[in-house]
């Protein structure tokens, strides 16, 4: 994918002491986003508060909408008007946004949904962390579709990966879920923002075709169609109904099959390229701890403690949660005894690990209902248990 | 179409009487449309198209946004940049479109259920903000696409599929609602008033701010039939008989009943700064030279997909 250098007007180059929410906002600005619509919700609001303060000075718009239903589609109107746009929320708001995540998937509207996860269900724990929206991010809207989801584990990654989220959204014309958690959002650390000429941004896949030749959902061999914006003379039609290459409603089983399979395969065919993870000492490991977000930092301590006890423990940190890196898990499963999956929920991504491992390695969940982080001792106990298990 | 109507619309226009003057605004390749015989939505589209001729509005800068429902299908039939969005959310989508590209003229074209029930919150907030949108609300007094259920606009005692013994919950008076919320232009016509409707739409194009035009429109299949009000033609006779032009009438007095008077006309025409003006003024006041008004010029769009 061709990239451009970031617009320096949005890039706050320098070394900062910044929390994850603010770093996410700076990442959005660096990625070229000049539009956000939001609705206040703890613990995510700081992202748009900073955007509201910064964007009038770099040329753009923040609008606080009347609810998350509005916020999650206002940004899509802005995308079709030519902007790079995002919205920010937490669990209860994320639930309200599901319909428009489906709309973005169906209409192939590139955009970013940031979810700073807190404890649920319902109002749950407004100020305390969880990682319990991970399956909702994947399956929350109705129908079959694919999204991309990223999980930062530090303020620095909140900056770096927000740029990546926008880039993936543009490359694949897909809504990207940016799955933070309360700890990462409110944690303050060093954040290095490089000069604009060291930041690559993916521009919109804007068509160069003439008005007569342009098909809004024509794919030309590539699975991702080209876009046009309102006001350019293309007079195109966009609908959430099942549609043909012209964007016209065509509600037939063959068209449904063709469209929905393409929406799926444009992401899944590129899954290996999208997959990002951090790995450590996988070679020769008996047990591999799979984690993401804040839990990966807590798990690190348990991993190191286990190694001190002489256990051979590898680490796989998921940076891309969706599409799930099946291939990587499959490869590891063939060589290790077991996976240990700590997460701030009662067992969400562990299901994926178990599925991808396909019985070749055992899978141990270390669940936590949220509201805090794991005690590393509890993860260590499961690592010990896993290392003693019989090979599957 | 009588010649007199066409010439009435624009003194300088050149009209090819052999063809249909509104066809240029329609996606002919999508015809026939889905609307029932006697339905009024097509009539409103005709008036809308005539307003486009009359106002000479730049079609390239015009975008149309619909929600879901029978009227929601309008976006699919007009040859414009057109967006068929989700149920109730045409207004927030249109808000984003307008704010991202303020040069666009954005029309929201949707039904009463879509705009005032599921989308009611967005309707009042867009009016409050005075976002520069032209909202055309085709009010057929119920949910038609789903089979004739009660809507917030259904008049008392009307029979619907969900109130088979007659509705009893009070209905919305939409002009009153949107005026109270802040709309700068509010009018109501019926599908009998095709010329007046076209003129109102043209007027709204000239207004800056949140404009709302309600069009009372028949649903012969579900509303007329269940309420023994005849077919589409009977609806026209009914509208002709019951309508009374009341320009400037207090909107509190224009609520609709099952068989009573239908007040039509332009009820509100006032000026107040729109959202973008207010935003610009506030930022300029607070930030001075640091305020960057326009979004930066788009970098050259590169696509490696062809």
Characterise this structure:
The complex is a heterodimer of chains A (392) and B (306). Chain A has 392 residues and is α/β, with parallel strands linked by helices. Chain A has two domains: 4-201, Thiamin diphosphate (ThDP)-binding fold, Pyr/PP domains (Rossmann fold); 278-388, Rossmann fold (3-Layer(aba) Sandwich). Chain A has helices at residues 20-30, 45-54, 68-80, 91-107, 134-139, 155-172, 182-186, 253-268, 271-274, 293-308, 326-333, 349-357, 376-388, and strands at residues 4-5, 14-19, 35-38, 61-64, 85-89, 111-119, 125-129, 148-150, 175-181, 188-193, 200-201, 237-239, 277-280, 287-291, 313-318, 320-322, 338-342, 362-366. In chain A, strands 3, 4, 5, 6, 7, 8, 9 and 16 form an eight-stranded mixed β-sheet that branches. In chain A, strand 6 and strand 7 (125-129) form a beta hairpin. The two termini of chain A are 41 Å apart. The model of chain A has no long low-confidence stretch (mean pLDDT 97). Chain B is of the alpha/beta class and 306 residues long. Chain B has a single domain, classed as Rossmann fold (3-Layer(aba) Sandwich), CATH 3.40.50.970. Chain B has eleven helices and ten strands. Chain B has helices spanning 3-9, 41-55, 74-77, 90-100, 112-118, 120-129, 174-181, 194-206, 220-226, 232-242, 275-287; strands at residues 62-66, 81-84, 105-111, 133-139, 142-143, 149-150, 185-190, 211-216, 243-245, 262-269. An eight-stranded mixed β-sheet of chain B has the order 2-1-3-4-8-7-10-9, sandwiched between helices. Chain B has a two-stranded antiparallel sheet with strand order 5-6. The longest helix of chain B has 15 residues, at 41-55. Chains A and B meet through helix 3, helix 4 and strand 12 of A and strand 2, helix 4, helix 6 and helix 11 of B.
